[in-house]
Amino acid sequence: MIPEPGEGYVRLSPRKLLLDPVKAVGQMVVPVAIALIGISRSDTKFWPIILPLAVFGPLVLGALPWLTTHYRLTATQIQVRSGVLNKTTSTAPLDRVRSVDLEASLLHRVLGLQKVQIGTGVDDDRITLDALAAPDAQALRTTLLTRRAVADQQAATPPVDQPADQPADQSLGLLPDQQSRPVAPPPPAPPAPAVALARIDWSWLRFAPFSLGRLVLLVGGLGVLSQFADELPIWNEETATSAWEWLTQFAVVAIVLVLAVGALTLWLVVSVAGYVLQWWDFRLVREHGSLHLTSGLVTTRSITVEEAKVRGVELTEPVLMRLVGGAELSTLATGVENGVTQVLPPCPREVAVAVGEAVLDRPGPLTGRLVAHGPKAHRRAWFRQLRNALDVIVLLALGWWWFDLTWWWLAAIGATLLALAAAAGEASYRHLGHALAGDHLVVGGGTFARIRTVLETDGIIGWVVSQSWWQRRIGLADLTATTAAGTERVLVRDVRLDVAVALADRATPGLLTDFVEPDRVPA
Amino acid sequence: MTDVGGVPVLRAPANRVSPQAVPFWTVSALLGDAVLVVAAVLVWLLVPGLPGWAGLVVLLVAVAAVAHVVLMPRIRYRVHRWEVTDTAVHTREGWIGRQTRIAPISRVQTVDSRQGALMRLFGLASITVTTASAAGPITVDCLDADTARRVVAQLTAITAATEDDAT
């Protein structure tokens, strides 16, 4: 049971007494083992002291947080008190609660517990209640989010005497005690029912191998394994050389094929397994004015983002995913520690667009045409990539010259790099563009991935027009809309200076008025 | 893109920075560049067996440093401008490139002023205005100290009057 507003402090779930010692033992097992080994070698007379310490220490340490952590709800705040010697009390005003996230590791789930994290906006530290019984955590989340909605509503609409307009059943259902008072403030509207925006469709599993985010983990894992491979006895020089001769004699092609197929199979298994683990039972729901995401097979996550704080969305189509028509969607929000929240697994582009439009509450920005940036921007896109490639080639050439290697290889690598750079340049220009769709700034970008960022113009809190020396010579500029949401900046690259000024002026009417001279004759 | 025939042009902000900024930038550039040039010359003198073009490189470094010290402060003084209206802060800065920054005062969160030891010597101070975006801080470099105090007071008064959390 969670406490009613005004009731006293309560403790976290008593099952925490099982959770924390297990975690504490997990953390202390290595140092304790080392200590025990050290002691057993030197002297055995300390055993009667050490052993109980090693066993009961974690238990006591684990139990302390439960004994000392209390929380309560008041009419306006949630308060959490913790600490043994240094008592700390964290409070969050209920109308400042921006997000309530629930998380459960495997251990949590076995015990029926959930960790609650309450985000309050501008400052980064969150109030954490680890852990509550799962139903309590749900109840607390609902309470906090509805209460916040109520607080917001009351702040937004000052109480007016309008009992006649008020449907009687609402007043009856919600606040029966107010029936006696004829000039009661209007009771809050009942929370809108939850609307499901998306849920997992296992045919989306086909996108898993094309999403390379997990590849980093896999490569890292292989790196760790290769550490052990060094230790294997086969890896000495003679076996290696004889094996190499055997290889070159018989089966280079076959071995390479087997390796490639093996790597591909491994990747398939890892990516699909990762997708299933992460997105099992995925649901995206809109309720209480928030977007609410739950997913996970082993560790379950539940993420809540207040919609009023969502300033836009970002649709990302990595190059491999585009081949199969897939996309990913993130929301850009203010007041959460990581402003970019991925709200959809890799899924078909149409689904991502539909959910994005539902979040934005308007169709169009994610699919509409963008204003292209013209031939000069096109040239710059090419030159930028070619220059990067040339930098690498020059460095490689220096290396080649230093080590006196065959130039054929350098030529081949250089040609490949240049071809790649040309492809990257062309792709990055094609992705480039901007538009103003009603009250949303739409920006296209990305080199290999196609990224479309949609930002509410209300969320723009400043502009930066930046020109390098080269850009000034050809009249282009980088326009950055600064914002508190997401990555805190949205970049419109290589746009004509006058177009940039006009765009900024139209996106935030009034802000630039003092500084714009509109009646210049076109140059 | 344009609405009414003419091409919209962002005009320069109204005010220049303090004229004292020129000697200040000159001295700070001199201090930085002198270290670099002295280091290059020392290497050239002390390391034996350098090829002939090493001397040329050192010479180029020295010439570039002199050009930097002489030209940079003057160009910069021409480019750097600032303006604070009732609704917005507008600055322009740079010397090779250009950055123009505009932020609405209603979204300003903090106003800091800073005065380094060298700046104090020239009677200068810088103001930094931050918004809720990490990409958005606006710095007005090298105002004379009195102007800086006045602007800070003005900005603080305006921002104190706005209430929401400016995101």
Automatic annotation (TrEMBL), chain A:
UniProt-listed Pfam families: bPH_2
Top-level taxonomic group: Bacteria
Signal peptide extent: none
TM annotation in the entry: 46-67, 207-229, 249-277, 386-403, 409-429
Biased composition (Low complexity): 151-170
Annotated keywords: Membrane, Transmembrane, Transmembrane helix
Name of the protein: PH domain-containing protein
Stretches the record annotates as Disordered: 151-190
Organism lineage string: Bacteria, Bacillati, Actinomycetota, Actinomycetes, Propionibacteriales
Domain annotation YdbS-like PH: ranges: 66-143, 429-505
Automatic annotation (TrEMBL), chain B:
Record key words, sorted: Membrane, Transmembrane, Transmembrane helix
Coiled-coil zones: none
InterPro entries given in the database record: YdbS-like_PH
Limits of the YdbS-like PH domain: 77-154
Species in which this protein is naturally found: Nocardioides pinisoli
Lineage: Bacteria, Bacillati, Actinomycetota, Actinomycetes, Propionibacteriales
Transmembrane spans: 21-47, 53-71
Domain of life of the source: Bacteria
Protein name: PH domain-containing protein
One of the Pfam families matching this protein, by short name: bPH_2
